[in-house]
Amino acid sequence: MRVQNMRVIVCGAGRVGYGIAARLAQEKANVTVIDQAASLIQQVTERLDVRGVVGSGSYPEILSEAGAAEADMIIAVTASDEVNIVSCQIAHSLFSIPTKIARIRAQSYLDTRYADVFSRDNIPIDVVISPEHEVAQAVLQRMTTPAAFDIKAFAEGRVWSVGLKLGEDCPILATPLRQVRELFPDLMITVVTVHRGTSLFRPTGEDQLEAGDEIYFVCDRDRVNRAIGILGQEQIQAKRVIIIGGGHIGFDVAKSLEKLGQSRIRLIESDANRASAIAEELTRTIVLNGDGLDREILREAGVAEAETVVALTNSDQINLLSAIIAKREGARRTNILVNQPSYGPLSQSVGIDRFIDPRAITISTILQHVRRGRIKSVYSILDGQAELIEAVALETSSLVGSPLSESELPKGVVIGAIVRGGEVVLPRSDTVIEPGDRVILMALREDVASVERMFRVGIEYF
Fold first, then answer.
1. pTM for this predicted structure
2. Is the C or the N end of the chain the one with fewer CB within 10 Å?
């Protein structure tokens, strides 16, 4: 079943629920949104081509009104883990909805000791989304690759897609892309998309890059640092890090940095009880109880010598202001968490180096389970204007068996890399995709459906 024919119920009309409903509605899915706030339902139905139902998705009569008897999927992303869990249980037990996705925040539910709790025999949730963990990993990747504004790993981490802004001294500027590999044989990358001003486009071999372009390139993980260096970007690992906010995300980032063992870490947490609790669990991190907006606390944490300050509180305003203060106090780089999309561009206009949008990360994770065909992973970029996709090529795929120069790829699709066994292959015109290959590609929004068709399972596969 293609996305445009799917019947999907979205429980929760907050930022994530609205975002996923908007994406599915764009692709002509039949979407119904449930929320207890009548104002949110009015907003979503006025702006999007979706149905709305006021009430709780955990109530059978509300799910019934939303069309649960005919639904193909339920996506529960309310602010309550318990409502999300019960919604999926009712969807399974009473309505036999085939696919159930739930956002779960509480770490107690996600403890590996209770890994069987979300299973068909217990609580039948097919996909559990943990935003805090995924956001923490995204923060960590940006910290360990500071020159990049965006990173996404594919194929169990063997292939990375990297977002990079090109400076005036980038050596490949004003050079047709088809000549780049000849002139720079060590630059083993595929440029898959270019964001220039307000335009996003799929580059061809004749296109030339310009200073200020924001590009996404794909390459072997082991060649990322070399590629960034060749492209003229400074890549200095942070040895002194300050984390503002000791919630689940800040705590996870600190634990991960401790495992890497490469940084001196200071964590600032405003709640005294929380600060005391995480201080007992962190072994190489100094935890300070105080306000990230307090210059004295920042100075006590060593802000003037810090290579990176990352603000991860629940408040966009605190994250933004604390990062501005940290920068003025001497911090080299600042990264912040933003929940309101408008804060991203605003943060960059006032000198913040990087921002992380958990809404976009969660939506991307959900989309990979919505996509049809042999889609393994999806990453939405630039507010859904394009998607980075990892898919498995089957014998029935139209891409298999012919050189790429003879393939009828949609205009807005470019293949970035192919993983075959343990080898990462950058595509050339004579490259032939084989059954079982993992293909990492970029598709502009209007061509995503074509990608699904290319990787769908044909009846002859069985």
1. 0.78
2. C
DSSP-derived secondary structure letter, 394: P
Measured CA distances, 365 to 196, 341, 428 (Å): 26, 18, 30
Where do we find the tokens 């939405």?
A: 380
From 339, 336, 392, 343, select the one nearest 362 (Cα to Cα). Answer: 339
Residue with tokens 């799917």: 6
Residue 193 CA to residue 163 CA, distance in Å, equals: 9
Q: Under a CB-based contact definition with an 8 Å cutoff, are residues 458 and 396 in contact?
A: yes
Q: What are the tens digits of pLDDT across the range 439-457?
A: 999 999 889 888 888 887 5
Token pair recorded at residue 290: 């105080």
Q: Is 400 helix (H, G, I), strand (E, B) or coil?
A: strand
Query: Across the chain, what does the average pLDDT equal?
Result: 89
* DSSP tag of 97: -
Q: For residue 24, give Cα distances in angstroms to 13, 29, 361, 378.
A: 14, 5, 16, 14
Query: Beta strands 199-201 and 190-196: pairing type?
Result: antiparallel
Amino acid in position 391 = A
Q: How far apart are CA 372 and CA 456, in angstroms?
A: 7
H/E stretch holding 87? helix 81-93
DSSP-derived letter for residue 260 is H
- The H-or-E segment that residue 108 falls in is helix 107-110
Position 263, amino acid: S
Contact 218, 416 (CB under 8 A): yes
Length of the chain: 462
Cβ atoms of 216 and 388 closer than 8 Å: yes
CA-based nearest residue to 223, from 446, 52, 416, 28: 416
C-alpha closest to that of 8 among 371, 431, 330: 371
Contacts of 349 (CB under 8 A, 6+ apart): none
H-helix segments, 287-427: 295-300, 316-328, 343-349, 358-370
